[in-house]
Design brief:
This protein has 13 helices and 16 strands. By secondary structure, it is an alpha+beta fold. β4 and β5 form a beta hairpin. The chain is globular, with a radius of gyration of 22 Å.
């Protein structure tokens, strides 16, 4: 058992040592970095690749990078990717088959590989999303073995939010801006008159062992208090909020609401919201063959309930209209997800608002449904 204290303080040198130690230990470190005009998640070789001095400006259908003067590394809101891209990748081979010389068919299952991921900068809303995906993909009778293997080896370093974006509403969903569980280490970034530093809390024995090997100091009372204050103040900085109502009940009572026609007139059914959502998990399978017909493969890939073929049966799609497809997505996310998985499917990250090309705002739609139900 490590003797490291439950809390500590790292400076920028200590954060660099953290990434170096993870890489030296054979971990694939994934974290935020600036690329192609956005803060994206990518493999990091050094903490120098973190987006120091970069923030973002968010609104419905709008995302822009902006320079910061304080040099903070994690003072930005969720970008277009989530950790789902690594734990539940967009495309994955399930098996392959080839024709043997004797005319028989040989089938080879694609065995899941367990990469040694270390995720640096996991927001509390995304920690909740990972827990939801754990329940959906690894907690039931029909386990996604690939997801389970990737998840089992993942080391999670959370970063609490002190500066939420204009599209964030994690407080409404009970998933932020702070966190108390689900991580190996949790950081709270502070940049003030006392310098640039990270208040660290330990969430697992593996996290304690790693922290014990880093150049850090025991957390002082002033730093601990500043970290708690920064997270507490973020509660009042949320750019969005869900109406205070039983969302499960509201969705079930709104199936014939006129508001669905309003949003359907704007929705492009492009599926962007499902692609950026950290909890959407739907997939389909496809078979591909070579030109000879002697080799075939089955691949699993992401699918979306906004795709016209998603609900296609022998007689055609069950949900042919944009109204029916948007209603399916929202009522499942906020309503029937509770029936299936005992929780909401929304964590309040706001990605679906920022990355919708026509700026549809999920909190605005729910507020409108509530108002219509009250009328």
């Amino acid at each position: 058992m490590s003797t490291i204290a439950a809390t500590a303080v790292l400076d920028r040198t200590g954060l660099e040592a953290l990434v170096t130690a993870l890489v030296a230990g054979g971990r694939t470190v994934v974290g935020p970095t600036v690329r192609d005009g956005a803060i994206v998640l990518a493999e990091l070789d050094s903490a120098d690749q973190l987006p120091y001095g970069w923030g973002v400006e968010l609104e419905a259908g709008r995302y822009r990078l902006r320079r910061r003067e304080d040099g903070a590394a994690f003072a930005h809101s969720a970008g277009p990717q989530s950790w789902k891209n690594f734990l539940h990748p967009q495309r994955e081979k399930l098996w392959s088959a080839h024709r043997a010389p004797d005319g028989g068919l040989a089938v080879e299952q694609e065995l899941p590989v367990r990469p040694s991921y270390a995720f640096l900068g996991v927001r509390p809303c995304d920690l909740r999303a990972i827990a939801i995906q754990d329940r959906v993909l690894a907690g039931g009778r029909f386990q996604d073995t690939g997801y389970a293997e990737r998840r089992r080896g993942a080391f999670l370093i959370a970063v609490e939010c002190s500066e939420p974006g204009a599209t964030c509403f994690c407080v409404s969903m009970g998933s932020g801006p702070g966190t108390d569980s689900g991580f190996d280490l949790a950081l709270t970034e502070l940049v003030d008159d006392d310098g640039h530093r990270f208040f660290v809390r330990v969430g697992s024995e593996e996290g304690a062992t790693l922290l014990d090997a880093l150049p850090c100091r025991t957390a002082d009372a002033a730093t601990a208090s500043a970290a708690r204050t920064a997270v507490a103040e973020a509660v009042d900085k949320m750019g969005r909020a869900m109406p205070p109502v039983d969302l499960h009940a509201l969705m079930g009572a709104s199936l014939e609401a006129e508001r669905w026609d309003d949003v359907a007139a704007r929705c492009l059914t492009c599926g962007n919201c499902t692609m950026v959502c950290p909890t959407c998990f739907c997939t389909t399978t496809e078979e591909v063959t070579d030109l000879t017909g002697d080799h075939a493969e089955r691949w699993q890939r992401w699918d979306s309930c906004f795709d016209l073929d998603f609900s296609h049966l022998h007689g055609g799609p069950v949900r042919p209209s944009p109204r029916s497809r948007y209603r399916q997505w929202l009522t499942h996310k906020l309503g029937t997800w509770h029936d299936q998985f005992d929780s909401s499917g929304c964590v309040g990250c706001g990605r679906c608002i920022a990355w919708c090309p026509v700026g549809i705002d999920i909190t605005e739609e729910v507020t409108a449904l509530k108002a219509e139900a009250e009328r």
